[in-house]
Write a structure and sequence with these properties.
With about 450 residues, the chain is α/β, with parallel strands linked by helices. The chain is built from 18 helices and 18 strands.
Length: about 450
């Protein structure tokens, strides 16, 4: 953290938004063209102004998420170019309807806490893709939604849709069910559009998530420590600028600091370094009292296979144990290039196992059960004890997808593999799960927003 403060003061960041540069200049930061060197006291003041926690809600007032250090929530990520078709298994360009399917599946899965689109729609007016994605997601889930945007006008359209769903601006401000997903670029660049989008949202009480991170060896130093400094510098510069614009804004900072694959020079999304660096950033944010967004449930694998399972499990367990607040990109394949609903379903089971481990072992006079042990005595059994029946479901985790039958029973039941069960679960969700419909005339208002947005493009 101290190294990050020195980096921001000595090296500074390129701030490509004019209003942001003026805010920093008025706060006392030296500005040289687009380069701004930010003194530590400005950063520290911004951290003190940032709420330690804020709450996101579902659109019907359910599924609250208290975004605070050491409360861990999992969800998919955005903007995959390709999507695995759930009906055919084909890898194809993401299209309209795919974010809605993602939201529907997330709504049905107990261990997915919030929704992102899992894909960048390719068959709509390109500049309006984020607006279409949000309209589909909010229609198909009761859980919080994290949209992204190209422009402030995208944010305005998304906000208008959210107000239509909430019923009023006041209702949305009181119980926000969305947080804007924005980015910073590595190394040490704050873009004009991301800051403008964040300004628009923060002024209306919408929480903002700032995420970025360099690739160690290419857009960041090759060492883990150096990569952490570049990532934290970007995150804290974003936080500082937004607090100067709207003091007290609800902000979650995050990072995806991957290692570079030494053979391809591409980011290694399934590398152990990414989970390690993410855990370190979570520790730093805990020290600062700030919520943190990390990454898990993703893989370099091209299809749902053993590699995807191994990398996903490693990431989810480490993210859970590190206490990262918002963990995104669940369901990514091929270095964040392909979204897979089957990957999402598999990770729901991995997250469930991880949460059981995170729950730990309760030790009390009640759970030590010395009286029961004494009553059963040496050589006895606990299967018939009333306490066993009363507590077993709460104490012992039971899988929904993984098989625990003996061989004979497994053969008699059809010799299904894990992949078979994942596909069957996904198809069951798509065929039967229906979230509550939007209330009132919200659907008509959403359609009107989309039509007005299209009209502006002509």
């Amino acid at each position: 953290y101290q190294a990050t403060l020195e980096c921001l003061q000595r090296t500074g960041v390129n701030v490509l938004n004019e209003e942001a540069r003026q805010l920093l200049r008025r706060a006392g930061a030296p500005v040289d063209g687009v380069r701004v060197r930010i003194p530590p006291h400005i950063v520290q003041d911004a951290i003190s102004a940032s709420p330690r926690s804020f709450t996101l809600w579902g659109r019907d007032g359910t599924h609250p998420m208290q975004v605070v250090p050491d409360r861990v929530y999992f969800g998919p990520g955005p903007t995959c170019t390709y999507f695995v078709d759930p009906a055919t298994g084909e890898r194809r360009v993401t299209r309209r309807g795919d974010p809605g399917l993602t939201a529907l599946v997330c709504d049905a899965l107990d261990n997915i806490d919030y929704v992102m689109s899992l894909g960048l729609i390719g068959d709509v007016t390109p500049r309006l893709a984020p607006v279409y994605e949000f309209s589909e997601m909010i229609t198909n889930t009761r859980k919080p939604v994290l949209p992204w945007a190209y422009t402030p006008q995208n944010v305005a359209d998304i906000y208008e849709i959210a107000v239509a769903v909430a019923g009023s601006q006041e209702s949305l401000r009181r119980r926000p069910f969305l947080a804007l997903f924005a980015t910073y670029q590595s190394p040490l660049v704050q873009t004009d559009s991301d800051l403008a989008n964040a300004f628009w949202a923060a002024e209306r009480g919408i929480p903002v998530i700032f995420l970025g991170g360099g690739v160690a060896g290419s857009t960041g130093p090759v060492t883990g420590a150096g990569s952490l400094v570049v990532t934290m510098a970007g995150a804290l510069a974003s936080l500082t600028i937004l607090q100067l614009k709207a003091r007290g804004s609800s902000i979650c900072i995050g990072g995806v600091p991957e290692a570079m694959d030494l053979r391809t020079c591409l980011p290694a999304y399934g590398s152990p370094e990414m989970s390690l660096y993410s855990a370190a950033l979570s520790d730093i944010c805990r020290y600062l009292g700030l919520p943190f967004m990390g990454t898990a449930g993703a893989s370099e694998a091209k299809v749902l296979d053993l590699q995807a399972a191994i990398e996903s499990t490693f990431q989810v367990v480490l993210s859970g144990l590190s206490g990262a607040t918002l963990v995104h990109d669940v369901g990514f394949l091929d270095c964040a290039n392909t979204g897979s609903l089957e990957m999402l379903v598999m990770n729901d089971e991995i997250i469930a196992m991880t949460r059981r481990m995170m729950r730990g072992i309760e030790v009390s006079d009640d759970t030590l059960m010395l009286d029961l042990i004494d009553a059963v005595g040496p050589g006895g059994e606990f299967l018939s004890a009333t306490e066993t029946a009363r507590r077993c479901r709460a104490e012992i985790w039971h899988p929904t997808l993984m098989d625990r039958q003996n061989w004979v029973t497994w053969v008699e039941s059809g010799t299904q593999t894990m992949q078979d069960r994942i596909r069957a679960r996904l198809q069951e969700i798509l065929a039967t799960h229906r979230p509550p419909p939007l209330s009132g005339d919200a659907a008509e208002k959403i359609q009107a927003v989309l039509e007005a947005a299209e009209a502006r493009q002509n």
